[in-house]
Amino acid sequence: MLLVLALPAVLAACGGSDDVDARLAIVAPDNNIRAEGDECAGARPFRAIHRGTAFTVEDGSGEVVAEGELPTGRATNADAGIDWESDRFPTVCVFDVEVGLPERARYRVVLPDAVPLEFDAVLLASDDPVELILSG
Questions:
Q1: What does the pLDDT read at residue 19?
Q2: How far apart are CA 16 and CA 70, in angstroms?
């Protein structure tokens, strides 16, 4: 129940048991002007990336091992090293995704109108989410 409250979209694994709990931060680096923490959707080249956008996760062989929909994004400072001296400044839109995956060496997140986002399973051992940055 906690997962459903924290993540509006219900994510489902495709067959097999879920051996790995993956925490992913999918980043749309659109540099749109927003207040930090605001709800957001991808802007400009990332307009197809928003709450409800369907995604799949494939393993290294291309087999779909999970699928789901993106939750609402949250605006995060695009350059934390700058004091913008304003409530609104360039941000990226981050989509926090939690999904169960079967144990594999490599994965690829596939979203519409975006280059697939590849990552190694070893990154899932961190306490931090795996940050995957979209390119347009």
A1: 85
A2: 22
Contact 73, 97 (CB under 8 A): no
Largest CA distance in the chain: 50
Cα dihedral sign, 9-15-18-20: negative
**Closest listed residue to residue 53, CA positions, set 5, 93, 103, 1:** 93
Tell me: pLDDT of 33 over 80: yes
Backbone Cα Rg of the chain: 15
CB 73 within 8 A of CB 94: yes
pTM: 0.85
Euclidean distance between CA atoms 121 and 101, whole angstroms: 10
